[in-house]
Write a structure and sequence with these properties.
The structure holds two protein chains of two kinds. Chain A is mainly β. Chain A is 0% helix and 42% strand. Chain A contains no helices and eleven strands. Chain A is globular, with a radius of gyration of 13 Å. Chain A starts with a strand and ends with a strand. The model of chain A has no long low-confidence stretch (mean pLDDT 90). In chain B, a hairpin with a 2-residue loop joins strand 7 and strand 8. In chain B, strands 2, 4, 5, 6, 9, 10 and 11 form a seven-stranded mixed β-sheet that branches. In chain B, strands 1-3-8-7 form a four-stranded antiparallel β-sheet, with no helix packed on it. Chain B has no helices and eleven strands. By secondary structure, chain B is an all-beta fold. Chain B is globular, with a radius of gyration of 14 Å. Classes of the chains: A mainly beta, B mainly beta. The interface between A and B is medium-sized, with 22 and 26 residues.
């Protein structure tokens, strides 16, 4: 079945450092790809999405490009802040909709001042 | 904005007891909700799809007699872990899609950490 591989955490960075969280998936032909974020004590929320191959999703300084040829959707941010400390999930959809998702293990990011 | 409320956030119980977890959509109606669980260092795995007014749809390998799902109203789905055992200890999270607006969105609860002693 479909699966997603994310880099293991925790990822520990200093403020203003560059962030990359790798994500690769096994299936092809996803209509969209998503990154979700869970801040402490809160529910998962959509961080960004890409709706087709080569599309770049961006939000709050985070970016990810849908790379069909490498089946990857790596998350990047040029300068992280303490407030970015959270758990990040790469989550392509199951099937053609957006409601059911295939999750990676999640990557915990810890940013220190 | 729309919010999904999940309670309790943490529960510790003795083996053999039943535990109920609630998932509520606070300002939208959800005919469908989803339940996931996550074991340590593993992925969030879809357990079942909760359907308002009808039976839940379970994923392969999920025991429907162990994980009882009730979606009695358009804003509430409950997951009951029947006769919980230590191997049921996990993180459970629900999600609900809001399809009423122009931009359909998926909202998640904050999760429930279940520990069975």
């Amino acid at each position: 079945g479909d699966s997603v591989t994310q880099m293991e955490g925790p990822v520990t960075l200093s403020e203003e450092a560059f962030l990359t969280i790798n994500c690769t998936y096994t299936a092809t032909g996803y209509p969209s790809l998503f990154w979700y974020v869970q801040y402490p004590g809160e529910g998962l929320q959509l961080l960004l999405k890409a709706t087709k191959a080569d599309d770049k999703g961006s939000n709050k300084g985070f970016e990810a490009t849908y790379r069909k040829e490498t089946t990857s959707f790596h998350l990047e941010k040029g300068s992280v802040q303490v407030s970015d400390s959270a758990v990040y999930f790469c989550a392509p959809p199951r099937g053609t909709g957006f409601q059911k998702l295939v999750f990676g293990t999640g990557t915990r990011l810890l940013v220190s001042p | 904005g729309a919010v999904v409320s999940q309670h309790p956030s943490r529960v510790i119980c003795k083996s053999g007891t039943s535990v109920k977890i609630e998932c509520r959509s606070l300002d939208f109606q959800a005919t469908t909700m989803f339940w996931y669980r996550q074991f340590p260092k593993q992925s969030l795995m879809l357990m079942a799809t909760s359907n308002e007014g009808s039976k839940a749809t379970y994923e392969q390998g999920v025991e429907k007699d162990k994980f009882l799902i009730n979606h009695a109203s358009l804003t509430l789905s409950t997951l009951t872990v029947a006769s919980a055992h230590p191997e049921d200890s996990s993180f459970y999270i629900c999600s609900a899609p809001d399809v009423t607006g122009e931009n359909e969105k998926l909202f998640f609860g904050s999760g429930t950490q279940l520990s069975v002693l």
